[in-house]
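QA checklist item 7 of 12: single-chain prediction sanity check.
[x] sequence parsed
[x] length recorded as 662
[x] structure emitted
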Amino acid sequence: MVWARWGLAVAALLAAFALQVGRAGAGGICVEVDGQPVSFPVPPVAAGGEVMVPVRALGEALGAHVEWYTEGARVILQRAGRVVEYRIGERGVTVRGLDCSWLGARHWELPYAPYIEAGLSFVPLISVTKGLGLNAGAECDPATGYLICRIWTLERRAALAVTAVPPGALVFLDGVARGILAADPTHPGRSLALTLGDLAPGPHLVRIELKGYECWEEAVDLRPGLNRLEVALTPGNRGRLRVITEPPGAAVFADGRSVGRTPLGGAYLSPGLHALRIRHAGREWEGKVQIFPPAEPGGVIPGDLTVVLANLASGWVAVRHPEPTFALGLGGPWGWDPVSGNAVFVGRGIRWADPDTLEPRRVLDEEVWGFAGWSPGGAYLAFDNGRSIILYDGTGTRKLGEWSMDALGIPSFDGGRGLLRWLPDGRLLGVSEAEWFARYWTLSFAGGPGGPPRCEVLPLSRPEEEFPGYRFQPVEWLEGGEVVVRAVSYAHKDGRREYTTEGFFGDIGIWNERTGELRLLTDAAEGEFYDPAGVVRLPDGRCGIAYRSWRPAGSARALAEWGLLVRDAGGGTELVPVTAPGEARWVSWAPDGGAALLATEDGAIMAMEWDGTGKRLLFRLPASGGARPECDPGKWAPDARRFFLRTADDHLWWLRRTGSPR
């Protein structure tokens, strides 16, 4: 809301400037700073509805430090912790600085590009005042025809004095920590005032946090001069709900009660399940959120909260779980229970959770290292604990069998820990990794899961001598015994593998488990790598192999490109790139193959069609603690309406599609 209000004020000011510039005609332009006219070596001019001024003269009149950099043709102004940067000939301006972090977008387009005339750099006047956080106005003098642009820097600045009961709280202004409220020795239980000065008049977001008390957060509208804020903190044991929408201004209701409009800094609710409704411009979303208690009794600890991010126009809603992923299960979501429809997380044990609220339903307390999910022929799950293979029914309540790895003849490396998965024909696939290569094996069960198992080491994982220079890794099993494999070749020297760009490449292949035939579908050049990531069933019935292609750092094409290797019924293949190199951190296709989600470097989550067309922004993950909002590749639910991902701050986000699947 802070940014929205400020943006509206700027838009109105720009419109007023453009109107007055049009009225000024040939009368000339006068610029005043705190009531004093500014002397310019070359007079300001009107261009395209903008007042263009020599930037050095104006900046120095405002008390700013102005620097010109020949390299890149840049002009930089610094004042009161703000840095405003222009590039000559480019319609863009960048603002940096702690006291302007609340602006959100720190780069915006100018209606008129800066230019050089008579050896001076001219920039739009309104962009200088906006970037430096100053007040400005414009009016046309009817007597002289002059356009008078007035800027205030002194008496129109604001200050805020904050006190709170009890003392010791940490004060944040516009998301930045500004100080701790020290105790007042003359008034026990109260704090001394913390004064924050040189602030721009207008709305600012103030947050006060103290362990053991509910966090206080509100937008405070500051007037020029000294403003006072006195807060009495409330002890509590409630969880905090934050709601962000794009666009902002959505009405938020919890259990039928209005709790404010977005961006909602904090609505405090009792722990448990709450009905949530978000409404904006005729669009509405309803769902349930699980509010969690503080991490410690009687206290709200920063980060112990639930965040809901709703972009109603996109048809998606994303919810941030308050607990780190290690509290849910190491590695995040691993699968879905086909019987109950619950999401399943795996760590030291297995945890079933409601897919909409992540409220825990049941926990199987077993030491788990590998997890196979549910078998295709029935609800059976399997895992290993580093020493043996254990098979349960799908509910996790009945153990069907437990077998020693050594007794089964399973190749054991690194304590026997490896990856497990069920194959379409009901076999259990395992991977045992050594330092330089992997061994792949299957367990088949006589009479179905739970029957006597038999281990078979796949020919794909024969010792390196039989496949010199190559390592093959199965990625996905297809019909007819075909397996999508990652085929990697390494350079060798004196019989030892070297991980260098020379002689190193990777291809996508199809290996027939029944005949042992291997056919490469790509032809990578030296130093190039095609990395298969799974199989997608396209809406037209064709099979698409998701891939990422890349070259090592320092090469001509170091950034990754994502796409699909499409196979037709006759066995022909076609590479279909869906992103440009470096555009996406990852791409994940929906189970129905009709669409995909991708994440960019700056935390944007986007949707697109299977061929890379129709890209649209769903929302941006908010930064946490100043860190860049990165996230790991996500995982789809079988219904293609839910999606899980884990962010760089090690928290889990679950996305729910509320509109059409496409």
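[x] summary fact logged: The CA atoms of residues 566 and 605 lie 25 Å apart.
[ ] second reviewer sign-off
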